[in-house]
Amino acid sequence: MTTPSPFTPRGTPRSQRTLKQPGQAPEKALQLPLFAVSEAPTEGSPPMPVAPAYDGADSEPGYGSPTNAAAPLQAEVKEGMEWLNEDPFPPPPPFLLPGEHLRKSMEKCIEYIIQHEGLGRSTAFEQFLFLLCAKLFEERNPGTPRCFWADEKEARADEGCAAIRRRIATLFDEVKEAVPSVFGSRDRLTLSDRTIAFVAGELGRHTLSATELDPLGVAYQQWTSATARYNRGQFFTPLGAAFLAVGMLDPQEYERVLDNSCGCGAFLAALYAYRASQLGLRFAEDVSASPAPREIPEGEARQQLSRYMQTRVYGADLDSFLVDIARKQIALAQGAPDHIYRMDSLAFPDGGADTARARADIPLESLDCLVGNPPFGVKITDPAVLARYELARIWTKQGGRDYRREERLSKRVYSETLFLERAINWLKPGGRLALIVPDGVLSEMSTAYARTWLLKQAYLLAVVSLADETFYVESRTHTKTSVLLMRKKTVEEMRSDTDGEHNYSIFMAISERVGFNSRGKTLYKRGPNSEEVFYEGKRVVDNDLPIILSRYRQFRKSPHVLPPPA
């Protein structure tokens, strides 16, 4: 399998990949599954910058310099990359199982509430959200008595339903006491005993944190129309894709991370799960994914996790309803709800109810990492917003790959283009971003000027093309997307890199399977004779995102990888 350059204009054959040594003519690329080393740009496309390797150096965590970076890339590179054909079993944490059955149970709960309660749509959703939060709290707090269960005999009798309600209500009181910043004294369960018993029985069969399904985000999507979300550019991220982006970003414990279009908080949940796995903790009682070996006592590890979520993780969104959900999400993940800001990230440092706090907490050029899935497909036409961005100007081609910026504003610019510039502006020099973007940004000729600008501002580290099914199950969109990983250049690198033309390694991969098909049905690996593949007695989900993450980590450590120019 070959991997196309994301910066290759349409019409260029995918097979035209090259490996180039400094000062040498391009050669035919290695034909490697899921992976390619990208190098010399094709005519008419912007230059292809760097994916740095990591040798364990502490000077710049995650991006060190290999000992033999200057060694020529020759045919023996193929031997040094034999690991590319090895699938990691079990997958690296925090990858989990698809949530096919949990999604169906949540649909049943929603239908039951609508049919039996007669509540307004927003009130009914709020009640279901309370129950989901109580279930998540139960799972993430070891030692909490299990309340979400109901046997058939108990759920049939009025006395049994009342008993179920009492234990769920007691649990919800504990939630309110633990996170008073997002739940008030007026928040209470008003559903009938029988409805609560039904929901407890359905959710009790699952561990919400043990699937690649964000329960709060899925509940919101099931309650709102796909058309309304599409018009707002809201395509909520499955946790599997969020795990991949966060895993490739690899935020360190001291690095501050922002998702400036956080929606319901899927990336906040992914950051929590990733940090927990790095500390050797299971982020839910029944999670089967093996965390890293724990080197410190569990109590101390949990304190570190809580401290990280409270002091290093931030989010923002324009939609007040989504901000409320995201605050609940981060509170249940031991984070700080006041680090979720209701504001327009594109209008920042103006606009939004929480902008003043955000200006003090996360000013521009202050962040180490930025992650997320910004709204795409929305046309931004407000001149006051457009005037803030270089990419909102008219750009004229100067020949070759050069563009000249004019002072005139475009009448409209798609949101994903502006969010990329905003991400660069929010990062400090040397900061990293991992964003899910539509492929149009990476390949359309109409956005070539934006790519040229981006590559002058940052090094391209990796691109992973996501499978078509990634967003379709929940968001019903066929838009092709990719994970884009970049590192912002330092002032010194900007001065020395005047033309942006350097030869260095970029990790690229194509994801073809994400563990489920377009109908949300779980897919399992099969052998050459169509027999199912088992690991430790369990069927193996056909999901190549964990494989891609594992190979990216090996790629960073490979001595054959050319790092960014220093």
Task: Indicate the topology.
Layout: E1 18-19, E2 27-28, E3 36-37, H1 77-80, H2 100-117, H3 121-140, H4 152-156, H5 158-178, H6 193-203, H7 215-223, H8 226-231, H9 239-249, E4 257-259, H10 266-278, H11 298-312, E5 313-317, H12 320-332, E6 340-342, H13 355-361, E7 367-372, E8 379-380, H14 383-386, E9 393-399, E10 402-409, E11 413-414, H15 415-426, E12 427-438, H16 440-443, H17 448-457, E13 458-465, H18 469-475, E14 481-488, H19 491-496, E15 507-510, E16 534-535, E17 538-539, H20 545-557
Parallel strand pairs: 4-5, 4-7, 5-6, 7-12, 13-15
Antiparallel strand pairs: 1-2, 3-15, 8-11, 9-10, 12-14, 13-14, 16-17
Helix pairs in contact: 2-3, 2-6, 2-7, 3-5, 3-7, 5-6, 9-10, 9-20, 10-11
Ends distance: 32 Å
Number of helices: 20
CATH topology of the largest domain: Rossmann fold
Strand content: 5-15%
- Class of the largest domain, according to the CATH hierarchy? Alpha Beta
Overall domain count: 2
Mean pLDDT: 79
CATH level 4 superfamily of the largest domain: Vaccinia Virus protein VP39
Physical arrangement of strands within the biggest beta sheet: 3-15-13-14-12-7-4-5-6
CATH architecture descriptor text of the largest domain: 3-Layer(aba) Sandwich
If you compute it from the alpha carbons, what radius of gyration comes out, rounded to the nearest whole angstrom? 24 Å
- Report the principal-axis shape: globular
Task: Give the beta-strand count.
Answer: 17
pLDDT under 50 segments (min length 5)? 1-85, 226-231
* Portion of residues within helices: 25-40%
Secondary-structure-derived class: alpha/beta
Reported for the largest beta sheet, the result is: 9 strands, mixed
